[in-house]
Amino acid sequence: MHSGSSLNRRSLLKAAGTTALAAGAASALASPALAGGRAVPEEEARYDAIVIGAGFAGVTAARELRNKGLKPLVLEARDRIGGRVWTSTWAGEQVELGGAWLHPNYELTYKELNRYGLKTISDAAPEKAIYPTPAGYKTFAPEEIVPRIGAVLAKVFDGSRQYFERPREPLYRADLLKAVDPLSLRARLDALKLSAEDLALVHGELATYAGGDSRDGALTALAQWWALCGWTHEGWAQMSAARIEKGASALVQSILTAAQATVRFNTPVTAVADDGKRVVVTTASGAKFSAPVAVVAVPLNMWKKIQFSPGLPKVHAEATQEGVGVKPNAAKMWLRVSGDVGRIVVQGNAGDPIAAMVPHARLSNGDSLMIALNGPGLNVNDRASVDAAVKKFLPQTRVIDMKVQDWVNDPWSQGGWGMRRPGQMLRQLPAIQQPHGRIAFAGGDLPSGWIGSFEGAIESGMRAAGQVAPLV
Ligand SMILES: Cc1cc2nc3c(=O)[nH]c(=O)nc-3n(C[C@H](O)[C@H](O)[C@H](O)COP(=O)(O)OP(=O)(O)OC[C@H]3O[C@@H](n4cnc5c(N)ncnc54)[C@H](O)[C@@H]3O)c2cc1C
């Protein structure tokens, strides 16, 4: 068990080469539809499916299509794989600029790790924790604070054993969900009439998951995590139990390698047209690719940037307008701070400019490397502002250097991890999982199970491949 602490990935953070075609081979492949009746060159019929996006969902869909004997083409806007997963190096350490941690109940992810022989590692347990109280921030021993947080969270998610009787089939008790799905996390906290002390212990964490404001996150989004974790705080605390030793991008790469896909980087898709027989995909450069089917595995927030014809079904269109990837606060910040701050975790209060911090490593020169998530109003590009925000919790230290990945202002995600808004599960979930003609949708923003996770992205990639494969 991870440190016996509730101080997990979400509570604390909450936080390439491939088989690319050779340069110059990116010429447009005219689709049969556009070929104006002329003979179809052989290369045009090369791909059985086009997968848009090379994150966990896209590479999984590509690999599953390959396993069904089909040839996938992957089109990726960035110059790298991984999307909201990005393993890099900074300050001499391997750093995850996006998703990092695994819960032991990530069944699909662990299956993939085993398949490709990738190992996981765990971080040392925190020694102390700073939490807000009505009298200001206080430092606690984990064994004191963890049970107190657990007791409050159990109240927040009370009822979820009934309404999420089957955590991986969230709509199994849709009848019971009608009363809870419209509730925001904030509405639930208000209804519970918690003491000021209890509220301070959990509000910051819940607001962080919702992108900075607990009114934006659905109670059911986090209650489903609670259910997937086994309805206990011990389970919840396991959300940061492990990370992938070689980095999360290593698993994305392994899956993509197995897909034996042709991958084109720097290839943003601007339009996807389904003429009933084939799907024609247009890129920003005007190149066109076609295949019998396509899987759209870009972040749900990005669907609205692609022109679909026929147009997106009503619920898909609504979902992408509302967004599922959290906003406006989803920057992952790696901070090199002066001195040895110890293995300390920090949870800010709702509205604090630093939402949460977790320790990562002690550097050889004695400085410490910490991971933080931003809260409302922080200029994440200004070290002095970040330093001032950190000093609120750790007055003795100084931010010497930082590496920040702001997923909300990232052009290809325009939001952070997936987290449904109030009412979105019942209004949108079943419909957005449905294909639109020859086009299926995948992503960590729309799984049945773990939303906002690797596990959810893998689940959805498998589903989408299964939906389109029979149409080829
Ligand atoms: C800060 C942060 C922390 C997180 N922490 C965790 C964690 O600890 N554990 C966990 O399990 N999950 C975590 N997550 C969530 C997890 O990273 C995501 O759920 C998952 O990686 C999403 O995968 P995806 O394939 O659905 O989307 P993405 O990874 O976003 O992949 C989509 C791909 O589509 C591409 N794309 C976008 N538009 C276009 C276009 N027009 N044309 C072509 N390509 C396009 C993008 O460049 C991207 O590569 C975190 C996320 C963030 C942001």
From TrEMBL:
Names of required cofactors: FAD
Record SUPFAM superfamilies: FAD/NAD(P)-binding domain (SSF51905)
Keywords, ordered alphabetically: Oxidoreductase, Signal
Signal peptide residue numbers: 1-35
Ranges of residues in domain Amine oxidase: 56-468
Ligase is among the record's keywords: no
InterPro entries, per database record: Amino_oxidase, FAD/NAD-bd_sf, Flavin_amine_oxidase, Flavin_MAO, TAT_signal
Record has Oxidoreductase as a keyword: yes
Family, similarity comment: Belongs to the flavin monoamine oxidase family.
Protein name: FAD-dependent oxidoreductase
Species: Streptomyces stramineus
